[in-house]
Amino acid sequence: PAFGLFIFTIARDPLRIIILIAGAFFWLVSLLLSSLIWFIAVKASDPQDERLQKGLLIFGVMFSVLLQEAFRFLYYKLLRKAIEGLVALSEDGCSPISIQQMAYVAGVGFGLMSGAFSMINLLADALGPGTVGIHGDSQLYFLTSAFMTMVLIFLHTFWGILFFHGCEHRRWWEITAVVIMHLTVSGLSFCNPLYVGSLVPSYLLMAAAAAWAYLLSGGSVQNLRRFLLCKC
């Protein structure tokens, strides 16, 4: 999905490519910092205490989510400054790209890097040793992981639109809603290997976020109906 979004909506515009790469870099830095803190916490704790290690894993996931959203806010601030610079340099006093377009491209950048790391971890597990489900566990690990990766890519795209809109109009409850949704989807991963418990709610949240982002971007039910019916 990420490659489709990139090819059809971003690849032809050099400015959008730069914004996407920068967004991916911001997500990568947030992951690096959260991984470093989690690694230090694990090394400083008792590795034999399973309850403590599980608690540290939950802490690491939640902290990583909060750090990602903090970096999303920093990226918004950076892009806002960039728009002011583009307006100052333009001859007509207009920016070549709107904040809504920046929000979409930045969200795709976050989602693209998130999906890339998810796929790398998945491929690393596929190398073995062992066979999935050999001890009676679910054999749908790779399939469900692929679907979860897809939903996270789309969610980051929609979250980018919602988050930037909240920052632009100072609607802090929209930012809070994005953080809560992100924490919820990440927390649902602890339901695995009960994959229905994580996939179904995640896709429902994705549908809600997609509809919300569509309306905030200026979409309407009438336009959506005309699109589905292939009417001009």
TrEMBL record:
Q: Which organism is it from?
A: Pycnonotus jocosus
* The protein's name in its UniProt record: Gamma-secretase subunit APH-1
Gene that codes for this? Aph1a_0
Q: What is the lineage of its organism?
A: Eukaryota, Metazoa, Chordata, Craniata, Vertebrata
Q: Tell me its family.
A: Belongs to the APH-1 family.
Q: Where are the transmembrane segments?
A: 17-41, 56-75, 102-120, 140-163, 175-196, 202-221
The UniProt entry's GO CC annotations, sorted and at most eight, read:
gamma-secretase complex
Where is the protein localized? Membrane
Q: Which InterPro entries match?
A: Aph-1
Q: Which UniProt keywords apply?
A: Membrane, Notch signaling pathway, Transmembrane, Transmembrane helix
Biological process terms from the Gene Ontology for this record are: Notch signaling pathway; protein processing
What the protein does comes down to: Potential subunit of the gamma-secretase complex, an endoprotease complex that catalyzes the intramembrane cleavage of integral proteins such as Notch receptors.
An example of a Pfam family matching this protein is Aph-1
Topology with respect to the bilayer: Multi-pass membrane protein
How the protein assembles, per its UniProt entry?
A: Component of the gamma-secretase complex.
